[in-house]
């Protein structure tokens, strides 16, 4: 069965949330389609951002994720913004087409948390 983008988002968010990540859906797509008020999100901003506590009050880890179907195409404005985030700020944007792909994010979060002394997590 081919998953819709909404299904990929929901299943990926559920997996990450189950492993301690906080989920934030940006609704960037709704603004682009005229279904929401334009705010401060630039055109091409990814669908979701996930946050993981490091066990202190100052910093956290973030995963910036663009959700797509198996055949979904990354739009030119997305490609441009994702490239800008990577080049100017070294912020990687993950393209997730299958919810199981977020296991790599979960594992990397665990590794970094341990390295940075993230408490009981």
UniProtKB/TrEMBL annotation:
It comes from the Bacteria. Keywords: Plasmid. One of its GO terms (molecular function) is nucleic acid binding. This is VRR-NUC domain-containing protein. It comes from Deinococcus psychrotolerans.
């Amino acid at each position: 069965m081919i998953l819709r983008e909404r299904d990929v988002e929901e299943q990926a968010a559920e997996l990450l949330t189950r492993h301690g990540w906080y989920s934030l859906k940006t609704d960037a797509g709704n603004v682009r389609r005229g279904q929401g008020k334009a705010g401060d999100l630039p055109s091409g901003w990814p669908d979701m951002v996930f946050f993981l506590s490091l066990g202190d009050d100052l910093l956290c880890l973030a995963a910036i994720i663009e959700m797509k179907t198996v055949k979904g195409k990354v739009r030119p404005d997305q490609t441009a913004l994702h490239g800008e985030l990577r080049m100017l700020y070294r912020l990687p944007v993950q393209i997730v087409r299958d919810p199981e792909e977020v296991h790599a994010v979960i594992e990397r979060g665990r590794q970094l948390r341990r390295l940075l002394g993230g408490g009981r997590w």
